[in-house]
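Title: Prediction job returns without error message
Component: structure pipeline
Severity: low
Priority: P3
Assignee: unassigned

Description:
Job completed but the reporter wants confirmation the result is attached to the right record. Sequence as submitted:
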Amino acid sequence: MKKKKDSIGGIVYSTEHGKMCPACSRPVSKCICRRKKDIPKADGIVRVGRQTKGRKGKGVTLISGVPLDHEAIKNLGKELKKKCGTGGTVKDGIIEIQGDHRDLLILELEKKGWTVKRSGG
């Protein structure tokens, strides 16, 4: 079994397990320290807004404050993109959906039982 070490001395890759977490020295799939960091601190309100800044005039719908861990947010983003019939991404716990789909997304998120507010204009 080959192991690579970083400059501090912790294992970062193992041929047996793949990538290793440098903080807890476990495989990334079984990491316990990242799961604690992945859940964003939220006030219980999911905010849905629209933004065009830095996108050459193209608008995106932003969903923030979702009280889920990173994997669950990715799955929710995938589900919402499919519902809207468009593309998007998940960055730093914020779901970005291409286009202005605020009304549809607010209804879908309220169906899931969250308190949803329209943010921005």
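Comment from assignee: result matches the submitted record. The chain has two domains: 3-38, 45-118.
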